[in-house]
Amino acid sequence: MLNAYTKAINKRYNRKGSLFQEHLKRIKISEEEYFLNLIIYVNTNASHHQIDDFRTYKYSSYAALISQKETLLKRDEVIQFFDDVDNFKYVLKSKNINVDVIQEISLE
């Protein structure tokens, strides 16, 4: 039903695509430095914006990455970039992030 509604509106207003939400813009991650900074940025973002402590923020992947519980995340692949879980925790706690790298690549 929603598909028919979308088609009707698109036809009527000579438009294409989704009505309710724009598609996400994706950026291919091809540089390791960008990937590492992005992991730090995403996981510490709640603290950065003073929403919550990133270590306890329920919408963060941090808890899943440091635990041994089953997860759909590719935990081992992420942690290996930081050598081990302890170093991952240390890096995120120190928030040693290069925001310029993220902004530079994101704006391209």
Can you walk me through this structure?
With 108 residues, the protein is mainly alpha-helical. It has one domain. It is 53% helix and 0% strand. It has helices spanning 2-12, 32-48, 62-66, 75-80, 85-94, 99-106. Helix 2 (32-48) crosses helix 6. It starts with a helix and ends with a helix.
Annotation keywords:
single chain; 108 residues
Short description:
GO terms for molecular function: DNA binding; transposase activity. The protein has 108 residues and is mainly alpha-helical. It has helices at residues 2-12, 32-48, 62-66, 75-80, 85-94, 99-106.
Q: Whole-Å distance between the termini?
A: 38 Å
Largest sheet: none
Contiguous helical run count: 6
Helix content: 40-55%
Stretches where pLDDT is under 50 for at least 5 consecutive residues are none
Identify the overall geometry: elongated
Secondary structure category: mainly alpha
- Average pLDDT level: 79
- How many β strands by DSSP? 0
Q: H/E series, N to C?
A: HHHHHH
What does the secondary structure layout of this molecule look like, with pairings?
Blueprint: H1 2-12, H2 32-48, H3 62-66, H4 75-80, H5 85-94, H6 99-106
Organism: Gelidibacter algens
GO molecular function, one term: transposase activity
InterPro entries: Transposase_17_sf
